Amino acid sequence: MATRTTLSSSIETAIVSATVATTFSFILNVLFPLLREEYSLLSGFKDELEKLESIFTRIESVLHDAMTRQLKDRALQDWLVKLTDVACHAEDVLDKFNFDVTRRNAASSQRCLREVRDFFSGNNQLKFRFVMAHKIKELRGKMDSFSEEVSKFNLGQGGSERLIRDQNERMTHSFVESSDVVGRDKEKKEVVAMLLNNGATSTNLSVIAIHGVGGIGKTTLVQLVYNDTGNVGQLTYNDRASVHAYFDLKMWICVSDDFDLSRILKCLIESATKKKCEVDDLDQLQIKTREVLHRKRFLLVLDDMWNEEPQKWEKLENLLRSGDRGSKVMVTTRSLKVSSIINSSQNLQLSPLG
Known about the structure:
Blueprint: H1 2-39, H2 45-60, H3 63-69, H4 74-105, H5 110-119, H6 122-152, H7 159-170, H8 185-196, E1 205-211, H9 218-226, H10 243-246, E2 249-256, H11 261-273, H12 282-293, E3 298-305, H13 310-319, E4 327-333, H14 336-341, E5 346-349
Parallel strand pairs: 1-4, 1-5, 2-3, 3-4
């Protein structure tokens, strides 16, 4: 019963995290730019909008910290739930303003144009300005209270000691007891099929991205796939071998926030050779990496990847091309942008268990 309750709590927090992250992203990246452009000339409205945007930006910058810590902090979990409600309300209000913008810009006939011009002129425009200003001020008041509580929870200000502790707690490994996992057979079959299918590609390396909110089960799914031996009842993979038999070499690296190339290469070498790597020099590490992967069909898991800088990824990717055709990199991430910068050939968006 305790396990089921914990799982239910994890799913609830995952849904809240997904909702608030998506809502903030839409407001900051879509609605604010549109409204800024359309209403910049309205007296007083531009300043109010910029102040509200500043509050959203500040809170958005600590969302990752809040979502990471909420499972161990009930008060913070409640704060995120309330923040989600207010953010969704803000999205509705701002989207209404955006609808009015679209209505004005989409006028295609003289009759329609006259109607829209009538709406945005004279008394109607003054009324509209008043309503907008009132709603923006109301939103600012609500969001201000959440912004003030950022300091109360020490969000984004935990210091290096807590950062190291959180990173250690988030470290993962490749083992999972498959009998303890239920409800992911369909996704497992889908990912295994991706790994065992070379397709028509002529390249030595392809990348698969599995993304979803924190706590939804990305790591567990990849652990199931990583340890696949083909003994999965009625699941079949087009008569191909299991993951265990298909790859010459399997490696698991928990990347987390720190995408440090030297650390990643050392972990890769140690995971491949099952020996401690005493090399620290980056040039020697890259030489050793290419030697380890040479003519091997390998599977490399990069779990919990946050890096969104293409240059960092490209440096690692270039070294991974030493393997044989059919080699795969499987990346788990919460970020859609990560999936984009790694040029993943296949993606799986993981949803909560129904």
